[in-house]
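Treating backbone geometry as a discrete language has practical consequences that deserve illustration. The sequence in question and its structure tokens are set out directly beneath this paragraph.
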Amino acid sequence: MKRSLNVLVFILFLLGSVPVAFAENEADLRARIDAKSKELENVQSQINDTQGKLDNVSSQSKSLSREIQSTEYTIKNLELNIKGSEINIDKLTLELENLGIQLSDTERMISEKKASISTIIREINQREKVGVLETFLSSKSLADSVTELSNLDELQASLGNEIVLLRNLSSALDENIKDTDSKKTGLVNEQLNLKNRKVIVQDQKSYKETLLKETKNQESAFQRQLSELEKKQESINEEIEGLEAVLRKNFNAALAPGRGYLKNPFTGSRIMTQRYGATDFAKTAYKTGFHNGNDYGMPIGTPIIAAASGRILAVGNNGNYQYGKYIVIKHDDNFFTLYAHLSQQSVSVGQSVTQGEIIGYSGNTGYATGPHLHFGVYQTMELKGFAGAGVVPVGTTMDPNNYF
């Protein structure tokens, strides 16, 4: 009787035991994590405000003053994003520390539960060996024998409860490990974002200096440059579209992947500013009347991710023309994706990438009306040289929207 009571007391002790030092440490970490979250919210509010001003400037007619002001807002936004990355790195580091403490505590509790279960099993085995008749004969009274048998039932019920608790702890351990892996990936990505955004800021500052130097801060010089650029780009665009129009006729639907093959080449939600095909905008903006990919509006410096796993076929730069800085991924089934108008590329030719991996950052390089990502999908592709624009991806384009 006394031993059964001791076992039950031990079980209750295990269920209620949480070290005070751990609780205090976790509370302190949670408070610091919450403080970082509030800092991030404040920075995001400033980013949204600056982005609103940038969008307003970008909607105005193209002029030197607009271009300079747009660049200044872009620099400010990138600097705020850098600050946000630094805060998020601190937050993720604290979250990983907290998860580490929780992991250790869960492992300790699992070990204690296993020990508790072993103790209960030994107690049950010992009592079951005695048997019902022997229990009655060895007891001083009928009441004592009934109590002994009742205690056995309680031990068996406690064993069932402990097994359920152990399963719950094991599930919590699995969730903790998954969460830890996710936070580690997030930390690595945020460190990459911080590094690359610092480079992008310097590129934007250099662009502003070059713009002022080349135009001598004169609107007439800027408009002259813009006119020459548009004429050259129009010629390149017509040639490319002429080639791709012919190639599209050879498109083989049987060789194309199915829906769900691709994931969005960015995280979160973004507005599609122009889709693939003979859009209303394409009919008025391009002589060819055709747009060979999807455009997604987003601030400069937004992480761009691989839409599917594959190998990097090209990391190019067309300067002020066509796609500007771009990346091409060749996928296992001879399927290609293009990511264009980037501000920064973070992969190299021949590198293998997995779906969702950061490959670069959005921008407005090349011939672009504003910051956005041009995303193209190809069944066949070749890298063709064009005077003034360097090497440009050309091929059998497909509607990306059919493969998400």
Summary: The chain has a mean pLDDT of 88. Residues 142-215 form the longest helix (74 residues). The longest strand covers residues 372-386.
